[in-house]
Amino acid sequence: MALQWVILAYAVAAETAIVLLLTLPSPKLLKSRLVSLTSLLLQPAVGIVPFAALQILDIYWKKEHRLICTSEVCTAAERDRYEKSIYKAQRNIILCAAACLLYWWVCCICKYYKAIHTLEEVEKRYKNQ
């Protein structure tokens, strides 16, 4: 596994952990601090999206320029290597899609909790009047 896929895998693992932490029930104070910390981390983490997009483009380019081994001239080892490269490309596409999807989920969850927090503040103001 090349370095870019290791980096992307760690990013997906971190995003998955953040999504789990944000969606699990927890005390309000802990949840608000976790949302504010995650919101601060979202802006630098946006680099994951273009990075994943470039990796998808790289996979597409390699797919278009890959030697196709369908004739009877190919050996069994060549056919196995071809199939293995196809499986790796599919796995990497799923990894890129997961990185983008999880980043979007984290953004939506943080936006949702911020909206809830502002609505709770407005409700408190109306109750105090």
Automatic annotation (TrEMBL):
The keyword Endoplasmic reticulum applies. This is Endoplasmic reticulum transmembrane protein. Keywords: Endoplasmic reticulum, ER-Golgi transport, Membrane, Protein transport, Transmembrane, Transmembrane helix, Transport. Its main location: endoplasmic reticulum. It is found in: Endoplasmic reticulum membrane; Membrane. GO terms for cellular component: endoplasmic reticulum membrane. It comes from Davidia involucrata (Dove tree). GO terms for biological process: endoplasmic reticulum to Golgi vesicle-mediated transport; intracellular protein transport; protein localization to endoplasmic reticulum exit site. May play a role in anterograde transport of membrane proteins from the endoplasmic reticulum to the Golgi. Belongs to the BCAP29/BCAP31 family. Residues 1-124 form the BAP29/BAP31 transmembrane domain. The keyword Manganese does not apply. The chain crosses the membrane at residues 37-57, 89-106. It is a multi-pass membrane protein. InterPro entries: BAP29/BAP31 (IPR008417), BAP29/BAP31_N (IPR040463).
